[in-house]
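Subject: sequence -> structure tokens, single chain

Hey, anyone have a minute? Need the predicted structure for the following. Not urgent.
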Amino acid sequence: MADVCRMRRRSSVCRGLASLAAALTTAASAAGAQAASASVGDLAPAPAVHDLDGKSVELGTWIGRKPVFLEFWATWCTSCAALMPVVREAHARYGNEVEFVGVNVTVGETPDRVREYLATHQPPFRTLYDDEGVSQRAYDVPATSYVVIIDRQGRIVYTGVGGTQRFDDALRRVTAG
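Reply:
Had a minute. Here:
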């Protein structure tokens, strides 16, 4: 995003996006790996969110039925990029037992841009496109790279933000027994 903004310095949209990206990155860095917006122990919200084709997808399809790994991300998010190897490793280890869902926060995004990113980077999660901010409000998302892990009973067992999270213990707990 920074490269695009350098090319379009006069664009108020670019300046606004750059400010928002900086604020989200600062919040993520300050919050550390165990930030809590949706509280551990709470029942996880299960709102409907759109997919990239605009179709409604109920998070309740998985929440309360099987463990869920939920990441709020964006294509321009540097913390999300830093976290991706850990997400890939977790998916390789727990992907048969845990539903991995990536909710694109849509700030500065279009469905086509997200599709391009998915084709190039192939993240290991089902992608949703929260163009109405429904899930972001439901989880009170503090920043991109926000991860929520939910057990099969629908309770939140982990929340974290930033590119250096380690959630293997939480995934091990939600898949045990």
